[in-house]
């Protein structure tokens, strides 16, 4: 004799109702999670797009383009084999500047920066995206903490010569800030690498589609 045959009909009906209620509850909860997840993903994507636009806006001036560099991209590979997303600024269909992330190593680890360069190879700006440097010391690489990061704007691989894109302590042309050498040294190495990347890929970066 099976279990269902041994139970009275009213008990079977009660178990069925409970099972149905539990199933409907699980279904509703699952749908709620799916909807919430979809809304959250949209919000995260929108915030990421906004953050990217803000970062690019600091190294690709508005007057330089009539397109949206966030969505006008090109994928290349660095000398180290790292994928690099290129954000292109266009004016009248011609590439007027590009921006891409560069990486350096500071006192506390990786420093991620965004670098903008015009079609002739002149630096439009460099801004820090993320770092773990010491507050009050290494964080002076942030534009809101001091003007140090702004001194590269308007310079290029030939002004000064590429081999002099180092801090003065290493025989270069650029000051480190008081009490810290490793952090600015890491940023300088990243910028020098960014300039080398532009020189190597200039024809691809600046050609009109």
TrEMBL record:
Top EC class of this enzyme: translocase
Q: Required cofactors, per record?
A: FMN
Q: Which gene encodes it?
A: rsxG
Please state what the protein is called.
Ion-translocating oxidoreductase complex subunit G
Looking up InterPro entries in the UniProt record yields: FMN-bd, Ion_transpt_RnfG/RsxG
Q: How does it assemble?
A: The complex is composed of six subunits: RnfA, RnfB, RnfC, RnfD, RnfE and RnfG.
**What single Pfam family name could you report for this chain, choosing any that match?**
FMN_bind
> Where, per the database record, does this protein carry FMN phosphoryl threonine?
181
| Membrane topology per record | Single-pass membrane protein
PANTHER family, per this entry?
Answer: ION-TRANSLOCATING OXIDOREDUCTASE COMPLEX SUBUNIT G
Q: Where is the FMN-binding domain?
A: 106-198
Enzyme Commission number(s) from the entry: 7.-.-.-
Q: What does the function comment of this entry state?
A: Part of a membrane-bound complex that couples electron transfer with translocation of ions across the membrane.
Could you tell me the keywords of this UniProt record?
Answer: Cell inner membrane, Cell membrane, Electron transport, Flavoprotein, FMN, Membrane, Phosphoprotein, Translocase, Transmembrane, Transmembrane helix, Transport
Report the principal subcellular site.
Answer: membrane
* Family to which the UniProt record says this protein belongs: Belongs to the RnfG family.
Name its cellular compartments.
Answer: Cell inner membrane
């Amino acid at each position: 004799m099976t279990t269902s045959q041994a139970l009275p009909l009213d008990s079977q009906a009660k178990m069925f109702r409970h099972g149905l209620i539990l199933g409907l509850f699980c279904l509703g909860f699952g749908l709620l999670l799916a909807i919430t997840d979809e809304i959250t993903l949209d919000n995260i994507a929108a915030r990421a797009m906004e953050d990217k636009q803000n970062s690019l806006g600091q190294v690709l001036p508005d007057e330089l383009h009539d397109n949206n560099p966030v969505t006008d991209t090109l994928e290349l590979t660095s000398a180290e084999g790292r994928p690099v997303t290129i954000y292109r600024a266009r004016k009248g269909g011609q590439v007027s500047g590009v921006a891409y992330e560069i990486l350096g190593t500071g006192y506390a680890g990786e420093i991620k920066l965004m670098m903008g360069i015009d079609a002739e190879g002149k630096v439009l700006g460099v801004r820090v995206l993320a770092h773990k440097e010491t507050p009050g010391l290494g964080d002076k690489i942030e534009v809101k903490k001091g003007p140090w990061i702004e001194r590269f704007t308007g310079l290029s691989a030939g002004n000064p010569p590429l081999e002099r894109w180092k801090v003065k302590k290493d025989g270069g042309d650029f000051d480190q800030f008081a009490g810290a050498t490793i952090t600015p040294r890491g940023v300088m190495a990243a910028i020098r690498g960014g300039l080398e990347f532009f020189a190597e890929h200039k024809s691809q970066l600046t050609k009109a589609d």
